[in-house]
Amino acid sequence: MIDIDEKDKQILNLLQKDGRMTLKEIGKAIGLSIDSTHKRLKKLLESKVVHIGAFIEPKTIGYELISTVSIKLGNASEEEHGAFIDYLVKSPHIIEVISTLGQYDLMVVFIAKSTEELEKIYRSVRHQFKNIIADWESAINLKVHKFEKYSL
Asked: Is the predicted pLDDT of residue 31 greater than 80, yes or no?
C-alpha cells in the first residue's frame, strides 16, 4: 500500500470528476506547480493507485444487455480455476471478472447485443466449464447508479 497525502487525494478527486484535466489545471486547482503535479501523478500511476483510460458505455455501441452472473466453483484444481479465469478475462463479451468471498466464488459481468446472443454466450461458458461450475445465478442489470467513483 502506498501512502497518499491530501494533495494526492485532491489530484485523484479531480481526475475522477474530469479525467481529461491538464496538469496545469490540476496544479492550479490544488496550489501546486505543473512539475510537482506531474511528479505526484507519475507516482500515482507507477504505483497503480490510478489508471488512465476511457470508459465506454456498452449500450451506446449496441450492447443492450448487461448481466451480472454469480458463479460457485466446484472441485476445481488450481490449474482448472486458472484456465477458467483466463478464459473469462479474454472473452470479448465479459467486461468484469471479480473473485469474491461468500456464497459465490466469482462475479462476472457479461455484455450482449440481444437475448439470443446472451443465451449463446452463457451456454458456451457453462458447457465448456461444466465440470467446475457448481452453481450459476444470473441477473440482468437495469441501471448503474454509481460506477468507479471513490470519496477520498
From this structure: yes
* 133 Cβ contact list (under 8 Å, min separation 6): 71, 72, 73, 74, 126
Rounded Cα distance between 25 and 78, Å, is: 48
Other C-beta atoms closer than 10 Å to the C-beta of 103 total 9
Strands 65-73 and 94-99: unpaired
3-state helix, strand, coil in the chain (%, to 5): 40, 20, 40
Mean pLDDT confidence for 111-132: 96
Q: Which amino acid makes up residue 79?
A: E
pLDDT at 75: 86
Q: Say if residue 14 is in the same domain as residue 73.
A: no
Q: Give the pLDDT of residue 151.
A: 63
Side chain identity at residue 123, one-letter code: R
The domain of 31 spans: 6-46
Nearest to 73 by CA among 96, 95, 100: 100
Q: Are residues 132 and 75 in the same domain?
A: yes
Whether this model's pTM surpasses 0.85: no
